[in-house]
Every structure is written in structure tokens, then in C-alpha cells.
Amino acid sequence: MALGTDYAHQDCSLARALEVVGERWSLLIVRDAFYGVRRFGDFLAHLDIPRAVLTARLAALTDAGVLRKEAYQQSPPRYDYVLTDAGLELWPAVHGLGYWGSRHATVDGPSRTFHHAACGTRLGAGGGCPACGAHLVPPADVEMRPHPRPGGALRDDPVSVTLAVPRRLLRPVRATSGSGAFAGADDPGNS
To answer: Fewest 10 Å CB contacts: which of 40, 57, 69, 98?
Structure first.
């Protein structure tokens, strides 16, 4: 018997949220959107996700209002997937889960940390800046800083290479825009 995709008998806001972002891959797609990944081919390369699953998850996140499609090419039609205001509101949850994971679920600590761009201070568990007293630093004001792993980088796809240096969240990653290996690997369902 197939596992259901909803929590119909749970009268709970968390259950409703999990129906939107709780499927496997969904939060990683949202995480990558915060990192600036916008194009189908870049999500595909960075996540190693099956094409059909990525297509379905992007459609579901778009239908739920977490992402919106913005055309960047007319013929053939190609789209960027950009976080909506509702998607941006997921930042505290995404940051909090990552923070928790770096403390309790990884051996070598975080692969990335997040800092208030204005002062350089690492964000606390709740996404605030301990130095400035900002309760919640908006994602556009957050700088992601990678931390090399012992033994070197695990991935060498174009998105991982782009994310290997400090950068602001939400700044678009353009790993597929050139004539590289992933050019043209855009969403087959864009028409």
C-alpha cells in the first residue's frame, strides 16, 4: 500500500505545512531556492534528484504558492523558480532545521553557516543576530559561508562550485546559463 501524501485526520497547522513542504526533496528544493538556485537544470544537478520527481515537486511548490515561475526565455519557454513571500516565510524553519542538524545530526559540524551581512555575526538558532539584537535577520540580509569538509568537497557540480565561496542568500545562481554541461537541462514541463 502506498504511503499517503496528506494528514487528513490531523487537525493541526504543522500537518498542513507538512502537506506542502514535507515530501522528500521539497525542503531541499526550498533550501536551494534560498541559496539562489532558480533553474530546473541547476536544481537537478545540485540535488541529484530524479527529473520526474523534481518536475512534480516544483509543480507542487508552485501550486502551493511557495515558488512562482518567472519566464526568462520565450522560445522554447524556460522559467526561473523564485520564492514567493510565503516561501520567504519558510526561512526561519529552514535555518532552524539546518542549525539543529549541524549540532545533532552531523559528525563534522556544519557545511555552511549563516551570518548577518551587516555585521558579520553568525546567526543564532532562531535566525537572529546576537550582536545587533535583530530578532530575525531577513534572508536577503544573510551571508552564507561554506566550511570545507575534511578530505575536500563532496560535490563538484556547477552549483556546488558557485556555493563554495561566501555569498548572500537569494542571489541568483546561474550555473546553467552558459554552454556548460547543464545548459538546456531545463524543466520539460515549462510549455
So the answer is: 69
- Alpha helices, DSSP H only, in 22-142? 26-35, 40-47, 51-63, 85-88, 91-104
Cell of 168: 548572500
Q: What is the mean pLDDT of residues 83-96?
A: 97
In contact, 96 and 127? CB cutoff 8 Å: yes
Q: How far apart are CA 22 and CA 17, in angstroms?
A: 7
| Pairwise CA distance, residues 107 & 111, whole Å | 11
Contacts of residue 32, defined as CB under 8 A and 6 or more positions apart, other chains included, come to 42, 43, 46, 47, 159
Q: Maximum Cα–Cα distance for the chain, whole Å?
A: 52
Peptide bond into 172 cis (omega under 30): no
H/E element, 142: strand 142-146
% pLDDT > 90, the chain: 74
- Among all chains, which residue has been given the C-alpha cell 552549483? 159
Res 186 pLDDT > 60: no
Per DSSP, what are the bridge partners of residue 113? 145
Judge if pTM exceeds 0.70: yes
* Type and span of the H or E element at 70: strand 67-73
Give the three-state DSSP class for 14. Answer: helix
